[in-house]
Design a protein that fits this description.
By secondary structure, this protein is an alpha+beta fold. Helix content is 43%, strand content 14%. The relative contact order is 0.08. One of its GO terms (biological process) is phospholipid translocation. It is an enzyme of class 7 (translocase). This is Phospholipid-transporting ATPase.
Length: 1309
């Protein structure tokens, strides 16, 4: 029986599961809740809190004790309750654990309370929901919405749940949504009413009787599969374009109505909602490694101490009663048994050698570092009002250890603001001129007839550009004159084919897109209370038909109008479909039905008339070209475009500047303005949207001149040219056009322009009929809909006729070249991974100084795996010969990893600067397939200064990053701005997203967010360096101070018979880590600066210290232990010698020893501090003040503390004695002076690189005092004072790089 429920069976059942949604107004009010068809679906009430008042304490403790460190210290506390083992007072031993648990619980509780307030605010927002009882819309809170409710939304209202669009104020069923809160994309998206649902005032929610069948809730924001079932069982497809998602905002639409399909935590917004990302940094992994050494040290100390206990007890005679030994009778006395018992006592006593406080301190330090990074004004971009954002809270130190940087090109290195520069139509190149006054004068002189029109159209475009951007070119005068003569009514006889191509080309630019046109303000007919507004202007909701465009034509145009029937009756097939089913009528019948063309000229000006796009119509008497033409209205000139990509926006703007202007767009129609015709309406039959696999987009329209069914297609050259129709052997003109167009594509790419190829296809009625059936079946499919739609698009997108190509410029962002150069000087290898053509990518890489055409370039464009293997082997051998290495000098190690070229190889470093590697996507595919290709590819890339990967797919980008991580074991950073960069960003150790015009998908997947690329320089070179240096030195300091304290306890055991007794009271032992030395390391880890930010920005080579891991090496912990052994010996035996001949009590001796330890550890931190401020001073002073204040108060109150002895007034007496202060002074001097002397010698004879230069502040000015002071205190003297130097006396970086940095290894503690 068990075989009946196999894994495949379960998966098959899961795939068939669907959600069935019934409108709630169809369900009787008295229906049992359990019998409700929508029963079991989540309500719209959200709850992101983790705790309740009752569950907070048990649940929070349960979560905290999932951490191994907390479990360890809980074990120590429980062990201390065993009478024979306990080392501290039971209550006191619990203080550290309780403190850590309490601090963490308070933090968790505060965060959860903030989530509660946020949930409460969201749940109490109100919207309008249709009521069956009242037969109108009533105001309800969001948390009261349920699946199946019909909701009414107004313009600028937030969408409360995932709803299927049923009705909009637009007669064509169109609405616009702002999805920035969901995916961060600021451009508006178009959403449509489900096909064949009625529009207009006749629609009423009570008449809606359809049910919905859709997929279960999932994370796919850009996918939705569902169908709407009519009472007659007709299946109407529902796609992502029919869905309004929770959190989006309705824009440019008076109102919209829809039915809820997902609510609350089932919505896609909440399913994709996640908090800050948590990763384990490289330093944290090193800390975990050293904690293991701490455990080993603890076991060794406990073993030798318990061995001492056994040896000391073995010397005692069994007939001597020793009161402090915990055995009940002489017969039970055993030295070995006592050693075993004392082993666990020493585990309790030496517990602080495993630093519980270190983890708490690191967490607080990282929060402080993240705060100051986010508050850096030099990482603030005023134009976009954005600043750096830290989404990952615990990997700030990794910013200072990056060795490989992987960057996207478009939108990351460039502005992603496309500017139309040139185009080639029919193989003829048309250049656009720069937008300058001289150019305008020149243009006017060349073509006086259209001079005024040029400036009118140019000014129009400047007003219409999104966000105030201007079109920075002047149209080609000859081409503009041809476009200005475009007409669809009176076609000239014997018109040249080139003119047809030009007209089709600009018609494609205007129509083949998803651009949103916005013109006027919006007002709803229903107010927030659900009542109708009496002063509502219905003309806004139902715009009149513009004169000059005939009513909806019969035939094809009627299909769109007649197809939208009542929601309670089955939809009738379109007229077009019925015509296509009658082959005998063919297209002639359509043309006959459309004898009255849908395109006519406006003959006279109309006053106070509103067009379909909300434009006010003005007089059009002006005739620039001596023909009837229609001028743009004032509102039309204020038209605002919103596009999902900057490419589409640039193309529409370019067409507008040539006179072919898009005025309005709906799912079925596009309204254009032409200089000769005025307003023209084109019927759109289908839109085949762009996808990453096809790399093209198409629209199927009814051509306004010929009434033919025409497919217009645009896309990458690799996606369009293979789909061109086969050229007949005698068609020399077509071959010439293709050849010249390919030449223009290459020429534009070499200029660094992005290219798109345009093509068209006249579709026959028979072919269209056959394809339409396949396409409708794909649209109605619930399973694999994307795949079927892709196949459907590929069926019709073939046998294309080439029209031309466009070239658009994407300018570099400011500071890109300087940033890339600085990153390379910092020792980072920079790889650019782009999907652009090789010529375009190389040109941009040269512009940003990543590569130069005068350097050696290795270009890998392999056609087969065998060719790729041979090319890599030959290039590797060539590089090895130039480097003076044998071809086999870089073998694989035993684990199959590539041997890394050592950074100390100066010959390699010198030659590496002169080689660049360029590889295309096809070759990268071969690298993925063949292991030998992978290894040789990495060997070649290691010897290149820059790597440029062209035509890279998103999966290939992620693969390259993963390859470097796995084979080279390097810390990687990936930076990008678009959805195609998400895989790469998530794969890298650190992902950085650029908040750009391509949206925020990269931002949502990233660890850090930057407004511009050039901020990466400061983020890495300054904050990355500081974060790594601070945290590494603070961690080593924490290991040092804990080890010192534990060793003091062990030395005391020598003189206490290894009894496990401490030298001071329990509270002082606990407060040493908890209070006395807790605050200064936190201040140090957040605020210390080894060098100034200006010096780090001017000397990128200082970053190499972090990348090479010189501050925190694998030997640093052992150096700290050796230093701790020395200082602990001094801190214990100096007071011991001073009090040797005196009758001092244990309390006085213990307090003196503890005071010496506190002074030494705090002064040790002073030597480590390199940039002092008031918080450093206050932290040190406050720690000393708390130490002395507590002991004075404690000694005055502890009357019966630690019987039979107690420290009552002993501490006050100790502070008055000269021996106490003499012991402290001698302890500090003897413990720290050797370190100071060693550092002084190092600073004199082997100074660190970071302090042998300074940056230019002002000509002939000295370095500011704070820089001099900061450099003097580096690690107790690792630097030199250069305040006497002027700018011309600074040591060059090249000379200084020759100096060795090996002294850093033994100065890291």
């Amino acid at each position: 029986m068990g075989n009946l429920f196999t894994k495949k069976h379960v998966e098959a059942v899961a795939k068939t599961q669907r959600r069935h949604v019934v409108p709630n107004h169809l369900v009787p009010d008295d229906a049992d809740s359990k019998e409700h068809p929508n029963h079991g679906y989540l309500s719209n009430c959200i709850k992101t809190t983790k705790y309740t008042v009752l569950s907070f304490i048990p649940k929070n403790l349960f979560e905290q004790f999932h951490r191994f460190a907390n479990l360890y210290f809980l074990f120590i506390v429980l062990l201390n309750w065993v009478p024979q083992v306990n080392a501290f007072t039971k209550e006191v031993a619990m203080i550290p654990v309780l403190f850590v648990l309490a601090v963490t619980a308070i933090k968790d509780g505060f965060e959860d309370y903030r989530r509660y307030l946020s949930d409460k605010k969201v749940n109490h927002q109100q919207c309008r929901v249709y009521s069956r009882k009242d037969r109108c819309y009533n105001r309800l809170e969001w948390q009261q919405i349920s699946v199946g409710d019909i909701i009414h939304l107004s313009c600028n209202e937030i969408i409360p749940a995932d709803i299927v669009l049923l009705r909009t104020s637009d007669q064509s069923g169109l609405c616009h949504v702002d999805t920035s809160s969901l995916d961060g994309e600021n451009n508006l998206k178009q959403r449509y009413v489900v096909k064949r649902l009625q529009q207009g005032d006749e629609f009423h929610p009570s008449l809606f009787t359809h049910t919905i069948e859709c997929e279960l809730p999932n994370l796919e924001v850009y996918k939705f599969h569902g169908v709407m079932l009519t009472p007659l069982n007709e299946r109407i497809p529902i796609t992502k374009n029919n869905i309004l998602l929770r959190g989006c905002v309705l824009r440019n639409t008076d109102f919209a109505e829809g039915i809820v399909v997902y609510a609350g935590h089932d919505t896609k917004a909440l399913l994709n909602n996640r908090g800050p990302r948590y990763k384990r940094s490289k330093v944290e992994r090193q800390i975990n490694r050293d904690v293991i050494w701490c455990v080993i040290l603890l076991l060794l100390m406990c073993f030798f101490s318990s061995l001492g206990t056994a040896m000391w007890n073995a010397k005692l005679t069994s007939n001597v009663l020793i009161p402090f030994l915990p055995y009940e009778s002489l017969s039970q006395f055993s030295a070995l048994y006592q050693g075993f018992i004392r082993f666990w006592t020493f585990v309790i006593l030496y517990q602080v050698v495993i630093p519980l406080s270190l983890y708490v301190t690191i967490e607080l330090v990282k929060i402080g570092q993240v705060y100051f990074i986010s508050q850096d004004l030099q990482l603030y971009h005023p134009e976009s009002n954005k600043r750096v954002e830290c989404r990952a809270l615990n990997i700030t130190e990794d910013l200072g250890q990056i060795e490989y940087v992987f960057s996207d090109k478009t939108g990351t290195l460039t502005e992603n603001e496309m500017v139309f520069r040139c185009c080639g139509i029919g193989g003829v190149d048309y250049k656009c001129l720069p937008d300058t006054d001289d150019t305008k004068d020149q243009t006017a002189s060349r073509s006086e007839k259209i001079a005024d029109e040029d400036f009118v159209q140019l000014n129009v475009m400047k007003k219409s550009s999104r966000g105030g951007n201007t079109v920075q070119f002047c149209p080609d005068p000859a081409l503009k004159q041809i476009v200005s003569s475009m007409t669809f009514t009176d076609l000239p006889l014997n018109m040249p084919d080139q003119m047809y191509r030009i007209w089709d080309f600009f018609l494609l630019l205007t129509v083949c897109n998803t651009v949103v046109v916005s013109l006027h303000g919006h007002q709803d007919m229903i107010d927030m209370s659900g009542d109708h507004c009496h002063e509502f202007d219905s003309s806004v909701v139902q715009p009149k038909t513009t004169r000059g465009i005939s009513p909806a034509p019969q035939g094809v145009s009627d299909a769109s109008t007649q197809s939208r029937k009542s929601a309670i009756s089955p939809a009738q097939p379109s007229v077009l479909k019925s015509v296509l089913k009658k082959p005998k009528q063919k297209l002639h019948n359509i043309v006959t039905r459309m004898s009255h063309s849908p395109v006519t000229r406006r003959q006279e000006p109309l006053e106070n008339e509103t067009g379909s796009s909300g434009d006010e119509i003005v007089d059009d008497e002006h005739d620039i070209t001596d023909t009837d033409t229609s001028m743009l209205s004032e509102n039309t000139m204020r038209t605002k475009y919103e596009a999902e990509s900057t490419d589409e926006l640039a193309l529409v703007q370019a067409a507008c500047s040539y006179g072919c202007r898009l005025l309005n767009r709906t799912p079925s129609f596009a309204t254009l303005w032409l200089p000769r015709e005025g307003e023209v309406t084109i019927h759109i039959l289908h839109t085949l949207y762009f996808d990453a696999e096809r790399k093209r987009m198409s629209v199927i329209v009814q051509h306004p001149a010929t009434n033919d069914i025409v497919l217009y297609c645009k896309g990458a050259d690799t996606a369009i040219i293979p789909q061109l129709r086969q050229i007949a052997s005698g068609d020399h003109e077509a071959r010439k056009i293709i050849k010249e167009t390919q030449r223009l594509v290459t020429e534009y790419a070499k200029q660094g322009l992005r290219t798109l190829v345009m093509a068209k296809k006249v579709v026959s009625i028979r072919e269209y009929q056959k394809w339409l059936a396949v396409h409708q079946e794909a649209e109605s499919s619930l399973d694999h809909r994307e795949s079927k739609l892709h196949q459907s698009a590929c069926i019709i997108e073939n046998n294309l006729e080439l029209l031309g190509v466009t070239g658009m410029e994407d300018r570099l962002q400011e500071g890109v070249g300087e940033t890339l150069s600085s990153l390379q000087q910092a020792g980072m290898s920079v790889w650019v991974l782009t999907g652009d053509k090789q010529e375009t990518a190389m040109n941009v890489a040269c512009s940003c100084k990543l590569i130069s055409f005068d350097q050696d370039m290795i270009i890998l464009n392999a056609k087969t795996v065998h060719m790729a293997k041979e090319m890599l082997e030959s290039k590797l051998e060539y590089l090895n010969i130039l480097n003076g290495q044998s071809p086999s000098s870089q073998p694989l190690d035993g684990s199959g990893h590539v041997t890394v070229v050592p950074p100390s190889d100066h010959r390699h470093h010198k030659y590496k600067k002169n080689v660049a590697l360029i590889v295309d996507g096809k070759t990268l595919g071969f690298v993925q397939e063949e292991k030998m290709c992978r290894d040789n590819f990495l060997r070649v890339a290691q010897q290149c200064n820059a790597v440029l990967c062209c035509r890279s797919a998103p999966a290939q980008k992620a693969y390259v990053v993963k390859l470097v991580q796995d084979k080279l074991h390097k810390l990687t950073l990936a930076i990008g701005d678009g959805a195609n960069d998400v895989n790469m960003i998530q794969t890298a150790d650190i992902g950085v997203g650029i908040s750009s015009k391509e949206g925020m998908q990269a931002v949502m997947a990233s660890d850090f967010v930057l407004p511009r690329f050039f901020y990466l320089k400061r983020l890495l070179l300054v904050h990355g360096h500081w974060s790594y240096d601070r945290l590494a030195r603070m961690t080593l300091y924490m290991f040092f101070k804990n080890t010192v304290f534990v060793l003091l306890l062990m030395w005391f055991q020598i003189y206490s018979g290894f009894s496990g007794a401490p030298f001071t009271d329990d509270l002082n032992l606990i407060f040493y880590n908890l209070i006395y030395t807790a605050l200064p390391p936190i201040v140090f880890g957040i605020l210390d600066q080894d060098v100034s930010d200006d010096l780090l920005m001017s000397r990128p080579d200082l970053y190499k210290e972090g990348a090479m891991g010189l501050v925190y090496t694998k030997y640093s912990y052992f150096i700290c232990v050796l230093d701790a052994i020395w200082q602990s010996l001094v801190q214990f035996f100096v007071p011991y010698q001073i009090y040797l001949d005196s009758a001092v009590s244990m309390w006085e001796f213990g307090l003196t020893t503890l005071a010496g330890c506190v002074w030494c550890t705090l002064l040790q931190l002073c030597l480590e501090t390199k940039c002092w401020n008031v918080l450093h001073v206050c932290g040190i002073a406050l720690s000393l003040l708390v130490f002395y204040s507590f002991n004075l108060v404690y000694s005055a109150l502890a009357v019966v503390r630690s019987p039979p002895a107690n420290p009552y007034w002993v501490y006050l007496h100790t502070f008055k004695t000269a021996r106490h202060w003499l012991a402290i002074i001698l302890t500090v001097v003897i413990a720290l002076v050797p370190r100071i002397i060693i550092r002084s010698f190092q600073a004199t004879f082997q100074p660190a690189t970071r302090v042998l230069t300074h940056h230019r502040l002002h000509m002939n000015h000295f370095i500011p005092d704070h820089n001099v002071f900061a450099t003097w205190s580096a690690m107790g003297g690792r630097t030199r004072d250069f305040s006497h130097l002027r700018e011309e006396e600074v040591v060059s970086p090249e000379d200084e790089n020759k100096r060795s940095v090996k002294h850093d290894i033994d100065t890291n503690c």
